[in-house]
Specification:
The structure is a homodimer. Chain A has 19 helices and 19 strands. Chain A is of the alpha+beta class. Chains A, B: Belongs to the class-II aminoacyl-tRNA synthetase family.
């Protein structure tokens, strides 16, 4: 038996491919950001909902809604056979927070308030090929209103998103929420008489406006376009006169919302759906103003499309407008950190009845990266005060020091490794980013004193100090044992 | 195509068996409790660690460590084949937070500080038969110190657990941490010369001390015992003189730690391992006293065993000592809410080297239930102020009211359902546990006033009011529009 065990190779200590661990500040910075966002959601009357990670494949639907990634999948498995029963259910890890919301809205439709405002924050899983910076488990942070057909719900989500970004730490002026309406675009496509099947292709072409500009989109909508690398991208095949209203729509952004709305009214021509969409945008614009959200924070922008096929009305996207350096050291805009819109079909899968819904999802990792890039992630990364151990028979004394410091609200710990090598203890304190080390040998204990070593000052001196300065050790002070807490507090302040 | 879709039955809107959703206060109360616990862990120098939900089966080990539930399993699935590669890895959802910690401690052993203090909070999954109140996803909340062989680490965990329980809201006197040491028991078993394979059976018998008392354990250790229902439970088969030292150990709890330690020293007789175990308990007792944790909070108790086979030294358990009513209305002690101990073998699986570790796991759901039973879960369950909609063309006005209230820090929302039936709006406010409703019809708008309805007072009046009192409606006040925030604040205070 013992021999058999010896033969077995040791298990590999690795995360599965595409998964990672989060240590220390990785966890606390994200938590602080999400807590700030939750405060705003809560104040807007949204209630938290936490569904389980596991859903039936039946409830979840097998495929991701994102049409641009048809290969994206879920992690799924089949339950063991039910005794006397037959095959077990297929279960899967949720791939987003919207599909579980749809299931909850259907399952608890008689119990939940209607409309139901909820927020959800938590991990989701995608069974995709992992890549650099692309993980198979990541956080989402969503807020949705289920059961309201009113654009007031969309306007509220946009206003709340602006508040949430600011409360998380993004300064006003550093973000802009752009709002569009699928109905306007659908009206234009309807009015121009294009084949119904082309709508998705047209959306995809418009989505490239940011990158290829008006002329590029015109080519993509008609006969095709050669990109920078020389590769030819086939066009949608519209006639130039069909492409014209789409381009008019795309470029109808005016100097302000009033101007944009006037341009849009002209661009939609006689389409009833288009006119309705413009009217909704006008209402959203008025409501945002009423809620004190100016056009410096949220604005109508007809070039915003959003990839997902299931949006049916207003769509919105929050962009960070400051520049950062990309991987190659080039300056570029930070870009999108949140997006959402109105979707009316998700609950219908379960109940057969249309349930209007609208919501937003914040890209947790991207927003956190933005806060870090601006130095605003705001965690207190300071390590604990480390009480070193000079005399292993006096552990209780050292623990009393740690307890006293903690009772005074100071983060503190006793060194718990092998105390033989004192250098290791200081290396440990360094690794812990400890601001202060406490030292008390037998001599100091007999004299009723402790040494308090300011490690931050010490590191600064060590970096640029002469041998004489180093020997003078001004970063270490001897104080009476009774003054331990006061002295540490003095250094930390 | 459309026809095919029609034929498909609608998916069932259900959570998978054994899973559940958490709404509103379910989420916030747990979060508040965990945040309070995390504050204490952080102050003790513990760093957060968040591993992913998914591990390789190889790293996780296939089986739960709990020997009492050998059928307990994990949710596992096999990755798709690697192209040109062969079979994919088997992945699984973590079943606790200790196995991932062991993997992390091995994987990052060159980067982590040593000793490594970490805490972790999050869901774990068990592929078990669900039962009433027993779910297949639940929270754990762990703190462990990896890489310290010193009992100072165990003492620190016990002191921290006491602080954490108090900071979460459990009053001093309402909990007790009981501490024992496996080495003492192992020493006794060793000294009595029982077959090595009997150790687990002896542990199991001792674990019943709470329920069956000294005489019951004596029977279980020797020839067997008839329980209340008349069923016979087979005994371990020890001779009475072999059972005697085990019983002496079990009943060696004295009036205080000093008394218990004296009794234990007598009970272990000549066993070296037993003597070492008693000495460790004496040190833990001294250290707890040094950290200001008195015997009213943590105490040596030889009757604590803890089921898990992997504990190798000190073990501890936190019990809540107040009584609650059980399902059948009988008074009983609340019981255990946390437990842990020293385990030295977990990291060894990966590296071949023993890494001493000790830690505690708080039963999140049980502690939360205890706080709720004591009315200490401490969430602010108050719903939002609801701004009702009398005139759907003036949504922007209502939204301005909501925004004003929120800007003043008051949780507030506008009714977003169909406003036609005003009764539905008040029913909605009721479902939202709203403290205040705001009403402004066209008439009030023209006069520049709003109606502010105190729903809590209103409900109190409605419950015991005569028709006259009801008509007088003292719970509703008309105030100038400009005084909206002040009036709502007055009611909420």
């Amino acid at each position: 038996m013992a021999k058999d065990q010896k033969k077995q190779p040791r298990p590999k200590a690795d995360t599965p491919k595409g998964f990672r661990d989060y240590f220390g500040a990785d966890v606390t910075e994200r938590k602080q950001m999400l807590d700030r966002i939750a405060e705003i959601y809560h104040r807007h009357g949204f209630d938290p909902l936490e569904t389980s990670a596991v859903e039936t494949v039946e409830a979840l639907g097998k495929f991701l809604p994102d049409v641009d990634r048809p290969n994206a999948g879920v992690f799924a498995w089949q339950e063991a056979e039910v005794p006397g029963g037959g095959a077990g259910d297929w279960l899967a890890l949720r791939y987003d927070l919207t599909a579980p919301l749809a299931r909850v809205a259907a399952q608890f439709r008689n119990d939940l308030p209607s409309p139901y405002r909820r927020y959800a924050m938590g991990p989701v899983w995608r069974n995709e090929k992992p890549g650099p910076g692309r993980f198979r488990q990541f956080y989402q942070c969503d807020a949705d209103t289920v059961g309201s057909a009113s654009v007031a719900a969309d306007a509220e989500i946009c206003a709340m998103l602006a508040d949430a970004l600011e409360h998380a730490g993004i300064r006003r002026g550093d973000y802009l929420i752009r709002i569009n309406n699928r109905k306007v675009l659908n009206g234009i496509i309807e009015a121009m008489g294009a084949a119904a099947g082309l709508a998705d292709d047209i959306l995809r072409s418009i989505d490239k406006f940011d990158k290829v500009g008006e002329e590029g989109v015109r080519q993509l909508l008609t006969s095709g376009r050669k990109d920078e690398s020389g590769a030819f991208i086939e066009g949608v095949g519209l006639a130039p006169e069909q492409a014209a209203p789409v381009l008019a729509f795309l470029t109808s952004k005016g100097a302000d919302n009033a101007g944009t709305l006037a341009n849009l009214r002209a661009a939609v021509g006689g389409s009833a759906s288009g006119a309705e969409g413009v009217e909704e945008l006008a209402q959203i614009s008025d409501m945002l103003a009423a809620m004190g959200v100016g056009e410096d924070r949220a604005i109508i922008d007809p070039s915003i499309v959003r990839g997902l096929g299931y949006y049916t009305g207003p769509v919105f996207e929050a962009e960070l407008t400051f520049e950062i350096l990309d991987d190659k050291g080039r300056r570029r805009q930070f870009g999108s950190v949140a997006g959402g819109g109105r979707y009316d079909g998700l609950v219908e899968r379960f109940t057969g009845q249309k349930v209007p819904a609208t919501g937003v999802s914040i890209g947790v990792d991207r927003l956190l990266a933005a806060l870090r890039a601006r130095g605003l992630a705001g965690t207190d990364a300071q390590g604990p005060v480390v009480v070193t151990v000079m005399d292993r028979d006096r552990m209780a004394d050292y623990q009393a020091m740690g307890a006293e410091l903690r009772a005074a609200g100071i983060r503190a710990e006793v060194y718990l490794g092998n105390p033989k090598n004192f250098g290791n203890q200081l290396k440990y304190a360094d690794k812990r980013q400890s601001p202060v080390a406490i030292i008390q040998g037998g001599d100091e204990a007999a004299r009723g004193v402790v040494q308090v070593k300011d490690l931050i000052l010490g590191a600064r001196i060590a970096a640029g100090a002469s041998h004489e300065e180093w020997k003078a050790q001004p970063a270490q002070t001897e104080v009476p044992r009774a003054d331990l807490v006061a002295e540490v507090r003095r250094i930390l302040e």
